[in-house]
Amino acid sequence: MLDFKKLPLDVQLTALLDGETTPEQKQELEQRLATDEGAKRLFDKLRHGADFGKHRFDDILKEPVPLALVRSIKSAQPPKALVAPRASRPSLKLAPTGPQALAAAIIVFLAGCGIGFFAAGSISTMRSTAPTTMETASEPTEWLMDVVANQRLIARQPRHIFEVPSTQAEEISTWLTSTVGVAFRVPDLSDQGWTFQGARVFIGGGRPVGQLVYTSADGDLASICFRKDNLPSDTDDFKETIKDEIGVVSWHNAGTSYVFVGPSSEASLGQLAMQVATSI
Q: Is the pTM of this model over 0.85?
């Protein structure tokens, strides 16, 4: 049987953090921590590393899922498997013993601590070597978050999705051009099943944003948003992402940022964005 007292100190402390010790073992380790400064420092390092690793994993899970991955999952067909008869055999139960379970838990915990320490070092290096890149990326991120928030807002109040209706085309053109500072044309997406309903203005990333609102026959909502920017020319590429139920395609052209935003279930979102880019 595994002798707990013969295990290395870091393994014993890891078991204590994971709640895998007996009351006697816990009491003995706590007494040692109260009197042994080296053991206490080791315990604090293990605890902080585990906490950092857990928080980092939580942050990773919150990151947006690529739009292409979501669509591929939704369009995937389940495999059709034939159920073939097979001879029955005695069931084999794999039940780990107490020491085996303890050893497995310790290994997993130590691996998490190692990942936490490694991630902490990597993030520290990134912060010390590339502050300019992070600051440059903050503005586009803020503006896209405002676009998504505005899209969610008007989607929840379908009777008030525009300020000026599509019937007032001249008013929309004059109003948005003078407010946003961007000349544009209203793209015709009717062949793709989207009907232009009207226009709005909101603030995105601290600047006025023009918004052209479209609806489908199914009642879905899509928008073309644009504003003036100071982005470099290397940001012209189309970028697709997804924010929960909303799909986002962004691009840049001639001093203007554009976003086409609609339901993430719309498989042709990227193609629609390219059509908008050539006609707006």
A: no
